[in-house]
Design a protein that fits this description.
Helix content: 25-40%
Largest sheet: 9 strands, mixed
Shape: globular
Pathway: Cell wall biogenesis; peptidoglycan biosynthesis
Family: Belongs to the MurCDEF family.
Number of helices: 16
EC number: 6.3.2.9
Protein name: UDP-N-acetylmuramoylalanine--D-glutamate ligase
Radius of gyration: 23 Å
Binding site for ATP: 118-124
Distance between the termini: 49 Å
Number of strands: 20
CATH architecture of the largest domain: 3-Layer(aba) Sandwich
Amino acid sequence: MKKLIDFPYTNVLVLGLAKSGTAAANVLLANGKKVRVNDRNAVKEDEIVINLEALGAEVVVGEHPLEVLDKIEIVVKNPGIPYDNPIIVEAERRNIPIITEIEIAYSLVEGPIIGITGSNGKTTTTTLITEMLAQSNQPVKVAGNIGIVAIEAAQSLEKEESLVLELSSFQLQGIVKFRPKIAVLLNIFEAHLDYHKTMDNYVKAKCNIFKQQTADDYLVYNADDPVIVEAVKEATSKLVPFSTRRKVENGAWIDNTSIYFKDEKVIDRNEVVLVGSHNIENILAAIAAAKLDGATNEGIRNVLITFTGVKHRLQYINTINGRLFYNDSKATNILATQKALAAFTQPTILLAGGLDRGNEFTDLLPYLSHVKAMVLFGQTKEKLSALGKQAGIKTIEIAQNVEEAAKKAYAISDENDVILLSPSCASWDQYRTFEERGDMFIQAVHRLV
């Protein structure tokens, strides 16, 4: 077990278990810390609880009593727990620092960290960077919001290995010293305001990714995003822009035929197999970050001529009787669905709906011109139905879930249609995660064969 570096606290509260909380508690206990764990949804009989108590943790379950903060020096918060949680509010009142597991992972890492954040495209870009480095024979591990807890990856990380981290705003709001060697800021638009309350809070959380960087570090940023262009004026790191609109100095850019890093051609555009104009931004960001960490043009090209996307993000599933099925379950907001729709020109049947966060969907209107039908589900089905009628879409059907939506879409489709699951909403009204929702869709598609 690696030892924590520069973590001067003895009495620690881990608030919320799940994967990150459990991993944090285990590391803290192994480093001799006095750990108290509080999880409202857990019970004493849970295997996780039993194991942590056997290791010496004090575990409080079933409620959030304010007494769990007594004698505590720092709180390690599960990223999903909002800052208006009573324990967090009281911790702030007592001036107790609040961090997320990412901060502890940073205390375990000796080598370079590449951190990626943005409202959209994080998983694709994170995966591209990791594969580009691996194909260039550079030692690398990937973790963070991509499914592998950062602390767990840090435990087995060799000193010469790079750690590529996908980072959410929830994770980044809880950092203090975290400093990636290379930070990547893809885009920022209105999202997660139910958590962050204001757009300003959301932007600040995202920009935490570069706040601790110095002139020895790099910030890869979207030079086409006005919010980001304004925000990076405060950065002290070396700025490395990427742009789909113009040539940029010291960064990644594109013209009608090729993709470049600085003045060097990396690959022809027609060799790239990943669909969607939005993915060009992800590719440029990935090239810039990977090149800064030692990737070769050959390694980058090997990835781009074969990489068709990550699971649940515009993932091609199958072609059945000429109908092309795509799973974009990770599209949990309007912008993601805009980009998914923009990736296609042929007639499309859109499957959408999910948790109602109070959003209106009128920003989708300009992207519905080639949508011939909609199959809708979840809490937002009526809102989206009204939108479809406003767009003049004649065929609008309601389904109970994505499984039924897949069947209904196939029944009303014609040869050469795209059948696209791109919900534009979170999944929590019907499914535990967007992954579960996407898996249900994939299974339903395979049953159509």
